[in-house]
Amino acid sequence: QVQLVESGGGLVQPGGSLRLSCAASGSYVSMYTMGWYRQAPGKQRELVARMTSGGSTDYADSVKGRFTMSRDNAKKTVYLQMSSLKFEDTAVYYCKVDGFDYWGQGTQVTVSS
Q1: Which band of pLDDT confidence, cut at 50, 70 and 90, is reported for residue 30?
Q2: CA distance 96 to 67
Q3: Beta strands in the chain (DSSP E)
Q4: What are the residues whose beta carbons fall under 8 Å from the beta carbon of 55, sequence distance 6 or more?
């Protein structure tokens, strides 16, 4: 069973930045594609960013140029650096290991003035 613990969310003003972290059990971070997802109230969960085990990344159009995904294999952690945050980035953010249907508790990001 994969255990995922997201952290780093909070309240931030538009234009601000946050860095989210996701600590995973085992060796999933180094061996599998990892993804960051988000779910806003009343909306479906959507993929925000994805990183392969080889380090290739892919981003949703809505966050390209503003969000950067990275990982630290030694710490078994993936990160999502979010900059130039917008109201529409408000959501609960989750990480996930591709191919495994396990989710952490998520971390709330609220962009508000």
Answers
A1: confident
A2: 17
A3: 4-7, 10-12, 18-24, 34-39, 46-51, 57-59, 67-72, 77-82, 91-97, 107-111
A4: none
Angstrom distances, CA of residue 51 to CA of 33, 39, 89, 96, 111? 5, 19, 20, 11, 25
pLDDT in tens, 78-92: 999 999 999 999 999
- Look at 101 and 10; give whichever has higher pLDDT: 10
User: Which ranges constitute the DSSP H helices of 7-84?
Assistant: 28-31
Evaluate if residue 1 carries a pLDDT over 90.
no
Terminal Cα-to-Cα distance of the chain (whole angstroms): 39
- Tell me the CA distances in angstroms from 78 to 18, 25, 51, 88, one per residue in order: 14, 12, 9, 23
Percent of the chain beyond pLDDT 70? Answer: 100
